Amino acid sequence: MTADQKESPAGPADLLGREPAPAALALADGTLYRGRAFGARAVRSGEVVFNTSITGYQEIATDPSYAGQIVAMTYTQIGNVGVNGMDDEARQPFLSGFIVKELCEAPSNFRSVESLGARLSAAGIPGLSGIDTRSLVRRIREGGAQVGVLSTDPALQESAELIELARTAPGLDGHDWVARVTCEAAYGFDEGAWPGIEGQLPRAPRPDRPLKIVAYDFGVKRNILRLLVEQGFDVTVVPATTPAADALAMDPDGIFLSNGPGDPAAVEGVRSVVRELVEHKPVFGICLGHQILGLALGGTTRKLKFGHHGGNQPGKDLATGKVAICAENHGYAVEADSLRSAGEEVEITHINLNDQTVEGLAHMTRPLFSVQYHPEASPGPHDAAYFFARFRQMVERTAAGERVTGAEICRAGTSARGAAGTQGGVAGTSTESAGRAG
Question: Taking residues 52-68, what's their average pLDDT?
Fold first, then answer.
């Protein structure tokens, strides 16, 4: 090992005295971390990022937005509540690997059906535990996200070989990861939010009038679809490259653009589709959907140093001045100056207070708006759940023949016309009556 390479030692035997199976993470900069294996026996490459959420590891591990990435959790103990089928955000995990400091292999929770390690093993995803995740996070923060290789294969643990694999493995830039996670055919979705437990506060009723929307699946999370259902939408999910004519032929009242993985500029065949859709229907985008909407309106995107991944990002609503603590998961951002010079009448509605990146945009003459962070709060917090009620209001008013714009909706907030946002079986309180502009 050369002088610029650093290696952390493998962890001790477990509580039962068993010797741990070896695992290693090699970074493209020559750093090597050794620890204990869990999940599948495999060798996988991906961009290494860290997530600062304290809870919700199952939702993170099954979020399709992590396709092509190896995720390191900053919270120390992961796996303590196991996993269950209801909290999966996709049909399978799509991430390349999962890293924790301490893995709980004996979970305890009334909803748990198996351990995190068992779920990742069944999906073919390798895991690494027992390393100094603080050291890894500092390296990513200081040097930026970089490609790594995670090996839980005992036959491939040699330092130089793993580091060379990391240096030659592809990153996210220029690769269409959406094509790997989108659905193969259109389907209807009618599952609402988790019913919760006995004795909780009653949920706000769904709106009486059903409205149809087409949801473009760029890697959509199930809880986003659930909260759209809670807003009274009849949801049809379609593959990412569905032609605009096919979506419009379904006669929807609105269009939803979902979250998803990777480089937005590399997603093939969707920019022109969205440009056509915005000419005809109200549109709401989340995360990658927000970035693709920005690109369709003539903007550009750039890669962030290490991205925003976690549940403690401060997002400021510029219309109300309110700051929400938000769940985010993205490594790219829409360039503010590109939107201003594109010729479209678009205004920036939200910013991230840590680095001033664009967190929301809205059109000043059309019913279009989008948000960079994840208002479905899966995992939490729930501060931004009001976006679903805003979308309901915009679609409802447009379907009634009103001329309404995304900027108008974002400035005024939700009104009595829109249903209150709901999350996790508890009635939402974010009707924004205390924070209306004007």
Answer: 96
287 flagged as catalytic: yes
pLDDT score at 377: 76
Q: Which neighbouring-strand residues pair with 189?
A: 235
pLDDT tens track for 154-175: 999 999 999 999 999 999 999 9
Which of 47, 89, 230, 287 is flagged as catalytic?
287
Q: In the prediction, which pLDDT does 413 show?
A: 62
Tokens found for residue 112:
């748990």
**Active-site pick, 374, 382, 396, 408:** 374
Q: How far is CA 309 from the centre of its chain?
A: 8
pLDDT higher than 90, residue 380 = no
- Domain chopping of the chain, boundaries: 7-168, 178-435
Of 238, 163, 142, 175, which is closest to residue 6 (Cα–Cα)?
163
Q: Is 374 one of the annotated active-site residues of the chain?
A: yes
Distance of CA 46 to the CA centre of its chain: 17
Strand-pair partners of 422: 427
CA distance 233 to 191: 11
Nearest residue to 393 via CA among 377, 410, 372, 373? 410
Read off the tokens for 269: 């065949």
397 and 171 in contact (C-beta within 8 Å)? no
DSSP labels, 168-183: HS--STT---HHHHS-
Using an 8 Å Cβ cutoff, are 89 and 63 in contact?
A: yes
Most confident of 19-28, 59-68, 341-350: 59-68
CATH no., domain 7-168: 3.50.30.20
Q: Which CATH superfamily is domain 178-435 in?
A: Class I glutamine amidotransferase (GATase) domain (3.40.50.880)
Over residues 314-343, the mean pLDDT reads 92
pLDDT at 290 over 90: yes
Distance CA 25, CA 396 (A): 50
Average confidence (pLDDT) over 11-31: 76
Residue tagged active-site, from 59, 89, 376, 408? 376
Q: Which two structure tokens, joined as six digits, stand for 336? A: 């503010």
Cα–Cα distance measured from residue 269 to residue 234, given in angstroms and rounded to the nearest whole number: 26
CA dist., res. 407 & res. 67, Å (int): 32
